[in-house]
Amino acid sequence: MAIKLIVGLGNPGAEYEATRHNAGFWLVDQLARDGKIMLRHDSKFHGLIGRVNIAGHDVWLLQPQTFMNRSGLAVVALAQFYKILPDEILVVHDELDIAPGLAKLKQGGGHGGHNGLRDIQAHLGTPNFWRLRIGVGHPGNKAEVANFVLKPPRKEEQALIDDALMKSLVVLPKLLAGQAGAAMSLLHTDESKKREHKPAPKAAE
Predict the structure, then answer these.
(1) With contact defined as beta carbons under 8 Å apart, do 35 and 54 qualify?
(2) What's CA 177's distance to the chain center, in Å?
(3) Model pLDDT, residue 202
(4) Is residue 204, in this structure, part of any structural domain at all?
(5) What pLDDT shows up at residue 189?
(6) Could you give the dihedral angle defined by the CA atoms of residues 111, 67, 105 and 23, in that order, rounded to the nearest 10 degrees?
């Protein structure tokens, strides 16, 4: 199936704009800029929406304005109205278990404690949608996660996250054309290279 809807997850409002939890918004903002469109608010879809052409493919863009834990309300409203199936939806979100600078693409799976994914899965009644996971790193302490994602990345982290977003934009045309395997291979190759070139640990003296 080709992707017909790209959902960027985040929280609305200026106070959240630069926070790690809004990584999904950042990618959709860039797609709108590249497509020279303005996202507009549509109350029946509970979010900002737009229609953009990416490498010859017409795609809906959506930024839910319901706050993260109610993202599914916006996704299911637009998907049902335009008869878009779950496996034709790509959700872009921040991922704690991936380091800044990396991004991963997959279909299905659990929500991993991510409130946006949890709500989308509940509203769609299936986990069988695509996810573009933008690495933001982990604070190291589970108790600090909520505070961590609602703060802006450090300057060096932001540069790495921006790099991962750019790499993700490069592979999107393949995914939109239904070439999921090629898109994943291209995106994940960078991570493999980084692992290959990771310095060996020093021997104990």
Answers:
(1) yes
(2) 18
(3) 42
(4) no
(5) 85
(6) -130
Q: Per the domain annotation, does 178 fall within a domain?
A: yes
Sign of CA dihedral 86, 54, 157, 101: positive
- Extract the annotated binding site for tRNA: 16, 67, 69, 115
**Feature table: binding site:** 16, 67, 69, 115
Residue 44 has pLDDT above 90, yes or no: yes
Domain hosting 148: range is 5-196
User: Which residue is it, tokens 């949608």?
Assistant: 129
Provide the pLDDT for residue 190.
62
- Tokens 């930024």 sit on residue: 63
In a domain, 80, yes or no: yes
- The string of pLDDT tens digits covering residues 170-185 is 999 999 999 999 999 9
* DSSP category for residue 44: G
The whole model's pTM is what?
0.91
| Active-site annotation, residues | 21
Percent helix, strand, coil in the chain, to 5, is 45, 20, 35
Q: Which one-letter amino acid corresponds to residue 147?
A: N
Residue 205 belongs to some domain of the structure:
no
Q: Are strands 40-42 and 5-8 parallel, antiparallel or unpaired?
A: unpaired
* Count of domains for the chain: 1
Is the distance from CB of 42 to CB of 127 less than 8 angstroms? Answer: no
CATH of the domain at 76: 3.40.50.1470
Q: What is the DSSP letter of 72?
A: H
Q: Please give the Cα distance from 178 to 121 (Å, whole number).
A: 22
